[in-house]
């Protein structure tokens, strides 16, 4: 049986994240009350900066288990990330262990964090992988879109992957929505349709978050 990531570890990770993020940047959190207080939920986060995961982990109202590429689990980071309840995933294959662990989080009524774009990019939700739809439909979990907008979104930053230290970073949580059509179907066609619905919702949330924050 596959081990389910540690909930206690994720809570420790949340406390580390909040201390680190508020120590290095100036997070402004909007709409965190939209995250359901109980039951399975997926946080779908845009990914433009290396701090997106730790930032959301720190400011989320509930402990979050992120799917993180296995390349990040190097040296002492491997036992650390595993210890704080994060899920190692091989992006280049069908990683059944990671899938089982992620579904275990949802079956336990926990919070799963996913970067739908798969890797760090423009952070505009332009390319969304089907994995998010699969977890949402299979795990029966609503999706909460999360937009992380930092001052590094402007050109001319020193380190592309990080907002300047002590700069404001906005984290905007959106309304939860269901990806499926209510039928519970998990066919390729149903998942493709769910992915299209998800992309529309996430893009709309990002546009709204930019209007709201002036980013």
TrEMBL record:
CDD domains: LPLAT_AGPAT-like (cd07989). SUPFAM superfamilies: Glycerol-3-phosphate (1)-acyltransferase (SSF69593). GO terms for molecular function: acyltransferase activity. InterPro entries: Plipid/glycerol_acylTrfase (IPR002123). Coiled coil: none annotated. Residues 41-151 form the Phospholipid/glycerol acyltransferase domain. Keywords: Acyltransferase, Transferase. The keyword Magnesium does not apply. Pfam families: Acyltransferase (PF01553). The keyword Acyltransferase applies. Signal peptide: none annotated. PANTHER family: 1-ACYL-SN-GLYCEROL-3-PHOSPHATE ACYLTRANSFERASE. This is Lysophospholipid acyltransferase family protein.
């Amino acid at each position: 049986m596959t081990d389910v990531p540690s909930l206690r570890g994720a809570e420790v990770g949340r406390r580390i994240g909040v201390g680190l993020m508020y120590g290095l940047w100036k997070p402004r959190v909007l709409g965190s009350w939209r995250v359901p207080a109980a039951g399975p939920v997926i946080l779908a986060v845009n990914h433009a900066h290396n701090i997106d995961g730790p930032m959301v982990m720190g400011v989320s109202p509930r402990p979050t288990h992120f799917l993180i590429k296995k390349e990040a689990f190097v040296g002492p980071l491997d036992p650390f990330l595993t210890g704080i309840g994060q899920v190692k995933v091989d992006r280049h294959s069908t990683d059944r262990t990671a899938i089982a662990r992620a579904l275990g989080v949802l079956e336990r009524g926990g919070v799963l964090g996913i970067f739908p774009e798969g890797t760090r990019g423009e952070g505009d939700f332009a390319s969304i992988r089907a994995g998010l739809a699969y977890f949402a439909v299979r795990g029966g979990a609503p999706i909460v879109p999360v937009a992380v907008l930092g001052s590094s979104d402007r050109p001319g930053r020193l380190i592309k992957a990080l907002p300047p230290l002590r700069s404001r970073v906005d984290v905007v949580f959106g309304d939860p929505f269901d990806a499926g059509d209510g039928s519970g179907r998990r066919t390729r066609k149903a998942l493709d349709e769910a992915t299209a619905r998800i992309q529309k919702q996430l893009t709309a949330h990002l546009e709204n978050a930019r209007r709201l924050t002036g980013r």
